[in-house]
Structures are given as structure tokens and as C-alpha cells.
Design a protein that fits this description.
The chain is an all-alpha fold and 278 residues long. The protein has a single domain (45-277), classed as MetI-like (MetI-like fold, Orthogonal Bundle), CATH 1.10.3720.10. The chain has 12 helices and no strands.
Length: 278
């Protein structure tokens, strides 16, 4: 009992520097943003009423959530099989696959975005290859639209989906899968009724991580998207730097934060319900 208490006390002491840093560096600015969204220009909900009654702002909000959802689903569809292959690999093969996932973290998002711009532009490598192979007659428009934004964001956010999935898959009890195979279940049944349910914690974690990150993404949509594909982050930047409407920018930021909080609560509820069933 005494040892457990001293260990807990030690963890609390070690966490103090982090808390002292997060207070002024994160919580205080966050409080200022939320307060400003209600307090200026007059105390009330004026900024939020404007956001949800302005057609331009509603369109941007819808586009932001649609883009974030699309990118998240695509990263899940691409990341799930890759994470499965990684979970079954070992040795050099696993290290090489892990390097493919981790190396993008060592490169700036701006550099990766400009790399995609050079690949997808009218005379870029992708269009030149497709024209040369006779697949298309004229270059495709792959930039300054939602397709370009989706491609860039999926590549950048894909590791955030793969890593939670990999962590979950490597901890699974594969005897359940083997038992299902022994009693005659086909591969599709084994996956749908046994393997997929066991990996849902990783799916939920990856979905939440990618979706929330995509909601506030700025660089890639700003560089690869068009004026019709604006996201909330771009609108916030416009209000801060061009129109100097800080209260409205604060309200938009608080709206994104509130939506992210709702998603986190849903994730917690799903996690608790699943753990209770188990």
C-alpha cells in the first residue's frame, strides 16, 4: 500500500513540469479564444449567430466536415490492410514497412504538399505518364479542387491511421481467429465476425485522430485547393490576417473545438460500452 502510494506520488511530481507548461502555453490561450468569441464586439452569441446564419460560413463548415470525413474514410480503407500486413510481418520486412510509415513524419508538411503539386500539375509526372500511356488524351485537372486536397491530405494523415491500427492488431488474441477457422468459417466470415470486431478500438482511435486533425488542416487545402474548397482553417486565417475580425475567428475556432469535443465524448462512450460487453 505504501509502495503504491509513493509510486503514485512520484508520477504526480513528474507530471508537474508538463502541467506547468500546458497551463500558460495551451489552456490560457484557449480560454482567451473562447472568452473573446463571446465577449466581442458585445457580450453574447452574436458571432455564433452570424456563423450559422451566414451562407458562406455554413458552406465552408459543410465542406470542412465533408472533406475531413472523406479523407478519414479513405485513410481507413488504405491503412487497414497495410496495418494488417505489418502486424503479420517480422524482422527486416516489418522494419522496412515501419520506415515507410514513419519517414513522412521527418519531412515538413509544406515540402510534401509542394511535392504533390509538382506531381499533379497539368504537366506533372502523373498527367505526363497517363498521356504517354494513352490512358487519357488531355491532362486531367488534379489541382485547385477537392480531388487534389483529398490526395494530399490522405498521404499526410495516413500514418495517423496506420499506427493505432497496428498497435491494436499486434495485441490481438489470434486463437479466436484460429478457432473460427477450425469450426469451418470462411475467410470473409472470420474477418467480419471475429477479426474486425477485435480491431474496432484501433479503428475508433485512428478515425478520431485523423478526423480531428483533418478538421483543422490548413497548409494542404490552402495550397492544393481552390476558392470553392475553402476549409474553416483558411477562413480563420482570413479573418485574423485580412479582415482583422478576431472575435469571429475565435468563434470559428471554438466551434471546431466544440465539434472535436463531441467526437471525443462519442469515442469515449463507444469505448466504455465495448469494454463493458467484453
Amino acid at each position: 500500500m505504501s509502495k503504491a502510494w509513493s509510486l503514485e506520488k512520484g508520477y504526480r511530481i513528474l507530471s508537474l513540469p508538463v502541467l506547468l507548461f500546458l497551463g500558460p502555453a495551451f489552456l490560457l490561450p484557449l480560454i482567451v479564444v473562447v472568452v473573446r468569441s463571446f465577449a466581442e464586439p458585445t457580450l453574447g452569441l452574436e458571432n455564433y449567430v452570424y456563423i450559422f446564419t451566414s451562407r458562406a460560413h455554413i458552406v465552408v463548415l459543410i465542406n470542412t466536415f465533408r472533406t475531413a470525413f472523406t479523407v478519414t474514410v479513405v485513410t481507413l480503407l488504405l491503412g487497414y490492410p497495410f496495418a494488417y500486413l505489418m502486424s503479420r510481418a517480422s524482422g527486416l520486412k516489418l522494419n522496412m514497412m515501419l520506415a515507410l510509415v514513419m519517414i513522412p513524419f521527418w519531412t515538413s508538411v509544406i515540402i510534401r504538399t509542394y511535392a504533390w503539386i509538382s506531381l499533379l500539375q497539368q504537366r506533372g509526372l502523373v498527367n505526363n505518364f497517363l498521356v504517354h500511356m494513352g490512358i487519357i488524351d488531355a491532362p486531367l485537372r488534379l489541382l485547385n479542387n477537392q480531388l487534389g486536397v483529398h490526395i494530399g491530405m490522405v498521404q499526410i494523415l495516413l500514418p495517423l491511421m496506420i499506427l493505432p491500427l497496428l498497435s491494436t492488431m499486434r495485441q490481438l488474441d489470434m486463437t479466436k481467429v484460429q478457432a473460427a477457422e477450425i469450426i469451418g468459417a470462411n475467410p470473409l466470415q472470420v474477418f467480419y465476425y471475429v477479426y474486425l470486431p477485435m480491431t474496432l478500438p484501433g479503428v475508433f482511435a485512428g478515425f478520431l485522430l485523423v478526423f480531428i486533425t483533418a478538421l483543422g488542416f490548413y497548409v494542404t487545402p490552402a495550397l492544393m485547393g481552390g476558392s470553392r474548397d475553402a476549409m474553416v482553417s483558411m477562413l480563420i486565417e482570413q479573418h485574423v490576417r485580412k479582415t482583422l475580425n478576431w472575435p469571429l475567428a475565435s468563434a470559428l475556432s471554438a466551434t471546431l473545438l466544440f465539434m472535436a469535443g463531441i467526437l471525443f465524448v462519442i469515442y469515449e462512450r463507444l469505448t466504455v460500452q465495448r469494454s463493458n460487453r467484453v
